[in-house]
């Protein structure tokens, strides 16, 4: 269990006595575990459990460890679980650069250094020089890329993806999948993807777990 | 921070139940003769005997009872028919824009406006004289302060209509409007009948507590009664406050006994209303059983719209004539306009209005600040526990609005005398807080629930702690809602009359308490100037709440409404 990557150690989520998910897996750094199931199957509750936001109507047991650290015992903000939802959810009251700078760890000091990092992150997702823009003026694909850049800047230990491609157009969707999985691979981040889209699972390439069927 | 949010609900419960419980106790005990300050230690029913032998006491009580029921009935009927006729149309939005500013207007200011409109020397009489009436001098008619209380009732109705309309509009999204409308139409029901039979019961259930609050308020209001109400005899609550103000301290026992009678009158009004509810429900069932379609409802619909517009127009016209008076030089009857305009009234009242103005701002801002903080803490605690307040918690929140103010503010005053805190700022803020708190919570609740919690989850995933998430994300994103809440709270505080008079004890005065005190003097110019401040302060609060977020976040389209 001291190994790198994400361990799900007997994670079990129940709702009113009904078991939704029971899972033990190892996701190595850069690898993807896809959880597929129809809506209402509780696949998002797994994600919420790992991020630390499981609704108390669910009961959960078991542990999750990332790089040997038992994250399920930590408060949400210390888990460093980078989350991407269906919607990009850029903070509407901050510029694009503001969103990115907010995500940078507090340990990184110096205004100009933080700005430079944010600008570099924008370049990394092909949005050079867009820092001063109002997020509301970006296209759907641009927003999704800013959301990705934001989550990567926070130095996450893993990525939790909740159907992050489902609201994008077909061609954008494929682009975004490549971008996300490449970045995760590059950084050696274990990824947990929940989706009901077969194409997502295929693109992810890793193991697929089906629940609620 | 976690501890703090737990503290929120506890503090609110303490804050609401504490003053009410102590206040009621402080009213009940003197009513039965127990008033140690004056050496009264025996239990006696003497004060009730005294009370019932006061002249025309039952006329006063029945005036109050009628006032409560009739105000609620007519306002609710108007709002109900209007919504039934126009839900889902653009007329709703227009009327809402016209009516909602009136909500923030203190009752006293609206009452003054009405008085200056309909009085024998008022604007209406001037507009039609002498051409239509032949009046060269104001006629000797008792229009304002009429013995039946019709002017007072009108003054209350024009203020309660906006309140009930906004409450109803807030409940409207919970009703499946288009579907029911189509279903009812396909069965051949008229638009209004379809709405009333199909949707109104669902909506009414949501606005019951506000309706009860209207009944309780109208049956026990003091300031509107002083300005517009009958005088011989006055409504019960008005007489009680006169007794309370009496230099003869033994009148306190009588006033306390009267406050219990007031409690009974308001209770009776609410009980009768419950009966009316049953009657209404039975009537609806009857109509549905008969299958009456009421297809020709155009006339009622137009009447409902006219009533809504009239209610708003009366208040607005009243306010205009008040403002006109404050700038008027010589203004003889029956001239429609003053023969000259002058700033003299403003210059003359300025020195004496500064202190009440300062106190209004101080008490209003402090009570609003505390109430907004507590409302936020309560809502954060709900997020924490993921539990929404139940029916019990909401009723508790409405408690200060359901119990007649005189019934517990009398007693509260007594306790403040004992504690040596009468006429101090903390006591005044506390008294205002009891009434500001419910409105602050109720106005913040829905926007708070509407906030997308995934923002918070994303920020936590980015490694930000609870406090940072609140101050950097939630508070700025919700700035508009929080400031609106504060504006609502401030408007409530500015409009409070009785708690200010009793707890301020004449030493701490606000623009509202001063304006009402001027009522008997009848100096239209001075009243006009005071009423201006009464309407200006709440309006300024709402202006800040509207424009500040727009200005701060002008660069961000996602933050504009």
From TrEMBL, chain A:
Residue stretches making up the ABC transporter domain: 1-211
Q: What is this protein called?
A: ABC transporter related protein
Q: Note the PANTHER family from the entry.
A: SPERMIDINE/PUTRESCINE IMPORT ATP-BINDING PROTEIN POTA (PTHR42781), SPERMIDINE_PUTRESCINE IMPORT ATP-BINDING PROTEIN POTA (PTHR42781:SF4)
What does the similarity note say?
Belongs to the ABC transporter superfamily.
One GO molecular function term of this record is: ATP binding
Entry keywords, A to Z: ATP-binding, Nucleotide-binding, Transport
Matching entries from Pfam families are given as: ABC_tran
Q: Which SMART domains match?
A: AAA (SM00382)
**Gene3D superfamilies from the xrefs?**
P-loop containing nucleotide triphosphate hydrolases (3.40.50.300)
